[in-house]
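This week, work through this protein record:
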Amino acid sequence: MTNDGPEVRPRPPFPPATRKPEPTPEQSKEARSYLWVFIALLLGMLISSELALPWKLLPLALGIAALVVGIMALVKVIRYGLHAVLRVIISMGLAATAFMTLGLAAMVALWPLTAKYETCMQSALTVQATETCTKDYLTFGGMLPQP
């Protein structure tokens, strides 16, 4: 009799790996429709972002809607297990949307200063005049030291 240590018992087999089932055509269509609405809202925001001040509220609203729809699209793509490329595309779009929406929100929050800048830029005829308008806007009307 040899003493080789405790008796070795075989391990129980691992359960089979569970994979997510392939998305149904309806699920794919639903996720892609959210993606297309997100892209349309993002493009609408990009196109309308150069409008004058009362109309700057439109791209801001489009940006907020794009953020909501983009998050919903990302959740659908992850839940249904669609291609990883779609996750990357939606994530990059969400980052761009968040950045632009924050910029538009800052312009709307600084309404009087932005209105003054837009009026100044409309009447500026020379490069020096546009530089003066830009410098005044970037220093918040002279409240900050000049760069």
Summary: The chain has a mean pLDDT of 86. The chain has five helices and no strands. The radius of gyration is 27 Å. Helices lie at 25-48, 57-80, 84-109, 111-123, 127-138.
